[in-house]
Design a protein that fits this description.
heterodimer; A: mainly alpha; two-stranded antiparallel sheet; B: alpha/beta; 10 strands; 22% strand; translocase (chain B); ABC-type phosphonate transporter activity (chain B); ABC_transpr_PhnC (chain B); ATP-binding (chain B); Phosphonates import ATP-binding protein PhnC (chain B)
């Protein structure tokens, strides 16, 4: 039994890109390789038996030709292929500019080996000796999450055109949020440690909490703001149609819709705070990071190793708990 | 009473939603608006509660002229004009009762709304509204747990909680199956009769329009092209509104179908 053939015009083939365009791309590739040869300042050589070739330009050339061949084989449009070439070119340029190589990893292995040995022999007792610092770290994370997420929610509401009182307010608050977000956590850490005096002056925890709060506001305002942008507008229209005010609409129609996302981001921010407080401690804000900083200055790697292991366990526990809660609420 | 006199609506993009609409709708009437998609039915309904501001002419609801430029006046108007939507527009994550209480917003102080702490008399009104549409047993269920027909009845209860003088319904049954659609329209009709609330409904289904309406208004290209009691809305009259045969599937529309 055979099904009758369907009368239809021939199916189109995926069009082959123009050969002339690829000739142009080939020229661009050759130009790129010449640029590699000319701009490379590295003296690293690749020994292939018969000759020694400059390492970086050869790697770049291989990458360029491989990408071009792949694109031709997959019938990729010339514009996409040009994009791929550009990616290779920029990556090569960046890597050779800073002399990127993995060689020190094995060449200097002997020097690193004693440190690794110490790391492999953590002093377990040390974990318990600094338990008060762990409590401080957790307390900092809790306080910062609470305050940071509350302020972040307010700023997100003001920033999103959906829930904001007016367009100028929305744009102004968006700009403020961008500025807050553009400074990294360690930047805030250095700032507040300088202002308040850090661990040495007994204000490390306060500086750390303030830094974490700013860090949290940035993240929460961004993520929650985007969630507000994408809520179902139907209930908002319904609230408007009953004659409710903006505040009532935000509370009744917007907040219930963003609550799962917002709670999930808040838990995520709490996880981030545990991790971030390590780095903040090193610049002088309190918590477990300051302990690491002290041990590092004493070259006490087995103590640091113990803290690192404990940190991994704490972060895993917090991750797991918050994941479980997040699953429940979404 | 709702009175349109020479009302135009021009959207910001330049599209003319309503052209010189003259219309008077008396208290307690049950009016169904028919017309093809894009004929201006939604615009007409949304002009009445200011969701779409009209650009010229004059519109009065009750004794007040609708003033789209005054937020406070529009809010006061909306507190007595309830609206029902095609997609129900419930907040699906909160309870049915809390959805109905949204209808009490305009007479609830902001701090009560913020805390979600409603007055006992508002709750009583919400329960009465739910009883009127027959789903009071679902009061503490999440709105998302209800079927489409039930959700639309919650939306009707939300409107009733406003204690409105006018109910606007924009395609209230377009996403419901026929038996459920009839049930919802029967509810609206009954409420219209029992409470004397002026009701204006957009409908696609001609048979439903004929079954429930007192008066039919036909629209095409933003203009009112038919207006009369339901007995006058014959097939011929409606074909005139649509400018095409009621049964032809492929008839090319001459105009109005955007």
């Amino acid at each position: 039994m055979s099904t009758p053939a369907i009368e239809a015009p021939a199916r189109p083939q995926k069009p082959r890109p123009a050969a002339s365009a690829y000739a142009g791309l080939l020229a661009a590739a050759v130009g790129l390789i010449l640029f590699f040869l000319w701009s490379s300042t590295s003296t690293l050589q690749l020994d292939i038996g018969v000759a020694r070739l400059p390492l970086y330009p050869i790697l770049g050339a291989l990458g360029v030709f491989a990408v071009l061949a792949l694109c031709w084989r997959a019938r990729t449009g010339p514009l996409t292929a040009l994009g791929a070439l550009a990616v290779i070119g920029v990556t090569w340029w960046g890597g050779s500019g800073i002399g990127f190589t993995l060689a020190p990893l094995w060449e200097d292995f002997d020097r690193g080996w004693p440190i690794i040995q110490e790391f492999l022999d953590p002093s377990w007792g040390f974990i318990w000796r600094v338990w008060d610092q762990w409590v401080v770290t957790l307390a900092m994370a809790v306080v910062a999450t609470g305050i940071g997420c509350s302020v972040g929610l307010l700023l997100a509401m003001l920033a999103s055109p959906v829930s904001s009182p007016s367009k100028p307010v929305s744009q102004a608050v968006k700009a403020i949020n961008s500025v807050i977000r553009s400074i990294p956590d360690i930047g805030y850490g250095l700032l507040f440690v300088a202002m308040l005096g850090g661990t040495a002056a007994g204000a490390g925890e306060m500086a750390g909490i303030l830094a974490l709060i700013m860090f949290n506001i940035g993240i929460i305002a961004k993520l929650t703001g985007e969630t507000i942008d994408s809520v179902d507008k139907g209930p908002l229209e319904a609230a408007d149609a009953t004659g409710s005010t903006l505040l009532q609409r935000d509370r009744i129609a917007v907040l219930p819709q963003i609550l799962p996302g917002y709670s999930s981001y808040s838990l995520y921010v709490f996880e981030l705070n545990i991790r971030a407080s390590v780095v903040l401690g090193i610049v002088g804000a309190g918590g477990i990071g300051s302990t690491i900083s002290v041990q590092l200055s004493h070259f006490n790697y087995s103590n640091i190793s113990a803290i690192m292991i404990a940190l991994v366990i704490v972060v895993l526990i917090v991750d797991y708990v918050s994941l479980t809660i997040r699953r429940r609420i979404t | 009473m709702i009175r349109f006199s020479n009302v135009d609506v021009v959207y910001p993009g330049g599209f003319q939603g309503l052209k010189g609409v003259d219309l008077t709708i008396d208290k307690g009437e049950f009016v169904v608006i028919v017309g093809l998609s894009g004929a201006g039915k939604s615009t007409l309904i949304r002009t009445i509660n200011g969701l779409v501001p009209y650009t010229s002419g004059e519109l009065t609801v009750g004794d007040e002229v609708v003033d789209p430029t005054s937020k406070g006046k529009i809010r006061r108007l909306r507190s007595s004009v309830g609206m029902i939507f095609q997609s129900f527009n419930l907040v699906t994550r909160i309870s049915v009762l809390n959805n109905v209480l949204v209808g009490r917003c305009s007479s609830t102080p902001a701090w009560r709304s913020l805390l979600g702490w409603y007055r006992a008399e508002d709750k009583e009104l919400a329960f009465q509204s739910l009883e009127r549409v027959g789903i009071v047993d679902k009061a503490y269920n999440r709105a998302s747990a209800l079927s489409g027909g039930q959700q639309q009845r919650v939306a009707i209860a939300r409107v009733l909680a406003q204690d409105p003088e006018v109910i606007l319904a924009d395609e209230p049954v377009a996403s419901l199956d026929p038996p459920t659609a009839h049930r919802v329209l029967q509810d609206l009709r009954r409420i219209n009769r029992e409470l004397g609330i002026t009701t204006i409904v957009n409908l696609h289904h001609l048979e439903m329009a004929r079954k429930y309406a007192d008066r039919v208004i036909g629209m095409r290209g933003g203009e009112v092209v038919f207006d009369g009691p339901v007995e006058e809305a014959t097939d011929a009259a409606i074909e005139e509104v649509y400018q095409r045969s009621l049964t032809a599937g492929d008839a090319a529309p001459e105009s109005a179908a955007h």
